[in-house]
Design goal:
Strand order of the largest sheet: 4-12-11-10-7-5-6
CATH architecture of the largest domain: 3-Layer(aba) Sandwich
CATH superfamily of the largest domain: Type I PLP-dependent aspartate aminotransferase-like (Major domain)
Distance between the termini: 41 Å
Number of strands: 17
Length: 451
């Protein structure tokens, strides 16, 4: 496609008309903003023609690389039939087939699929389902939610209410509904062993359940890795214990797999690491391979049947979105899942994750790296003033942002989580490509922290 505008013209239009998300516009507009023109494989190309590794898979959602011919064809083939018709009171072929496919690959307890357009919306739906489930079961007092401190579940009001990152959420405090929160186990900041950290966290959770179970509709968490909270990897055994406590105290378990799902952690879903069976699971991001906004909330037949009744019972689930179950999105999602099987993508992630782990050992030895966190291709590198004392940088210095900006100069795009530099590449990334990406990040850390 011929470029119709110069970089300077596009930048001026960006300044005049566009408000970028999660972006301080003053800083962005002063710093040679990146404007992407196209993508090929795991590379992005800007309007100046420069190539970059897509080190965060375009916000953690690209699975097979950009401009993939199979996914492109799936969309154009569906476009020849119909682009969209509503799912409210009717259905369509791709939405039905994708629902069947999702039920087939998720934990056995999950038997019904409700579509939406984003991960945050999928979370909102899960919360509403859990809330109304208990009402229709004759226990309306079970209306509150329990979540983890430092968690992130999206940016809509319900998702923010169960979130736990003050930097993102505190400004909206007066808009939010009340929730209960407990600590997520984080051995790196715990004065003791991993086992002691897990024990303390589980004890706090059990005490909260003993105190509040009669009021709690559900517990929501990010299984195995807290993503936006800093790529905090859950200690082994904790997730299984959480499931057992939810069953013991009759509280629904909601797992947010928007970031962790579809192979990112080395399993199709993070729940599989400890073989848990959630009551509700939320999905998004890589569901369409990074092509179109489709998300899903999966739930059990038991929850579905609480809403199943005669019209006059008024148990209809009054929730929906204009593009819910969009045919183009569902068609490319089906093609995306075909590619997972045909290319044995989960096995590939497991193999290249070992390559990444080997390369990251050198990064972990840098004097200003406190901890390297990894599960599959979900990687976070925490920057600190001193790796021995674990003293953090003053957040106002923006060290994570500076390192990511330097990495961009060196040919890799990613975003920081405060002072945690993330690497969330496309799942098809090869071993040599990962080696090069990690080498860029290592060089960027050295140049910024030792300047």
């Amino acid at each position: 496609m011929k470029l119709e505008y110069t970089y300077e013209q596009l930048l001026e239009k960006n300044k005049n008309y566009l408000w970028n998300p999660f972006t301080q516009m003053k800083t962005y507009l002063q710093d040679d903003p990146l404007i992407i023109a196209r993508g090929e494989g795991i590379k992005l190309i800007d309007v100046k023609g420069r190539e970059y590794y897509d080190g965060y898979s375009s916000l953690w959602l690209n699975a097979h690389g950009h401009n993939h011919p199979v996914l492109n064809k799936a969309i154009t083939r569906q476009l020849d039939q119909i682009a969209h018709s509503t799912l409210l009171g009717s259905a369509n072929i791709p939405a039905i087939l994708l629902a069947e496919r999702l039920v087939g690959i998720t934990p056995d307890r999950l038997q019904k699929v409700f579509y939406s357009d984003s991960g945050a919306e999928a979370v909102e739906i899960g919360l509403k389902m859990a809330f109304l489930y208990w009402k229709y079961r004759g226990r309306p007092e079970k209306s509150q939610f329990l979540s983890m401190k430092n968690s992130y579940h999206g940016d809509t009001i319900g998702a923010v209410s169960v979130g736990g990152i003050d930097l993102f959420h505190q400004a909206f405090e007066r808009l939010l509904f009340q929730t209960e929160k407990v600590a997520y186990p984080y051995p790196y900041r715990f004065q003791g062993s991993i086992e002691e950290c897990v024990e303390v966290s589980l004890l706090e959770l059990k005490q909260k359940l003993e105190e509040k179970a009669d009021q709690l509709a559900g517990l929501i968490l990010e299984p195995m890795v807290q993503g936006a909270g800093g790529m905090i990897v859950m200690p082994p055994g904790f997730l299984k214990e959480v499931e057992q406590l939810c069953r013991q105290y009759d509280v629904l378990l909601i797992t947010d797999e928007v970031a962790t799902g579809f192979g990112r952690t080395g399993r199709m879903f993070a729940c599989e690491h400890e073989a848990i069976e959630p009551d509700i699971m939320t999905l998004g991001k890589k569901l369409t391979g990074g092509y179109l906004p489709v998300a899903a909330t999966l739930t059990s037949n038991e929850i579905y049947e609480a809403f199943y009744g005669d019209f006059e019972e008024a148990k209809t689930f009054y929730h929906g979105h204009s593009y819910t179950g969009n045919q183009l999105g569902c068609a490319v999602a089906l093609a995306n899942l075909d590619l997972y099987e045909q290319e044995n993508l989960i096995r590939h992630v497991q193999e290249v994750s070992q390559v990444a782990a080997q390369e990251l050992r050198q990064v972990a030895e840098l004097p200003h790296v406190g901890e390297v966190r990894q599960l599959g291709l979900m990687i976070g590198i925490e920057l600190v003033q001193d790796r021995i004392s674990k003293q953090s940088y003053d957040w106002k210095l923006g060290m994570g942002a500076k390192v990511c900006r330097k990495a961009r100069d060196l040919g890799l795009i990613t975003r920081p989580l405060d002072d945690v530099v993330t690497l969330m590449p496309s799942l098809v990334s090869t071993g040599p490509e990962l080696q090069e990406m990690i080498a860029i990040i290592r060089q960027a850390i050295i140049e910024v922290t030792e300047a």
